């Protein structure tokens, strides 16, 4: 199942401040994306070692609207509960700011038999071996930065943008 999950995982890679989290959030809020998936889950990971059980508990709650049973303590038990919570669901799982393969493997519980996808944002190229696509995010052009800012704000506009918009995007 892990190999099948990797094939349903997309990687957004870039330096700090490149807009990975903003892009992932925008994707998760997109109306067309929301129509495709029954559940959209967002888990922020970060640079600390491993995956805290709080992150796994948060993911379980997002999938089921119920708490993960407190008696589950072993990593394998907790992950099995996450897998069970995701079974037969079309889930978009965003794992934001992953720093290790272990972090991804302890959270990526999507059911590979469904249309589910995992989107992993990271600074580390190649973090998910076998992922079918890795998108490298560089520094955006001023036009693209303004367009992304306006899109996230829910304002669809076309260039030329007002000078104030460029100053806001530089901030």
Description:
Helix 4 runs parallel beside helix 5 (75-86) and helix 7 (142-152) packs across helix 8. The chain starts with a helix and ends with a helix. The protein is an alpha/beta fold and 171 residues long. The protein is 42% helix and 18% strand.
Structural class: alpha/beta
User: Which radius of gyration do the C-alpha atoms yield?
Assistant: 17 Å
Number of helices: 8
Describe the sheet with the most strands.
5 strands, parallel
Q: Characterize the overall form.
A: elongated
Outline of this structure?
42% of the residues lie in helices and 18% in strands.
List the defining traits of the structure above.
171 residues; alpha/beta; 5-stranded parallel sheet; 8 helices; 5 strands; elongated
In terms of topology, how is this protein built?
Elements: H1 2-7, E1 9-14, H2 20-29, H3 31-36, E2 39-44, H4 53-64, H5 75-86, E3 91-98, H6 101-107, E4 117-122, E5 133-137, H7 142-152, H8 163-170
Parallel strand pairs: 1-4, 1-5, 2-3, 3-4
Helix pairs in contact: 4-5, 7-8
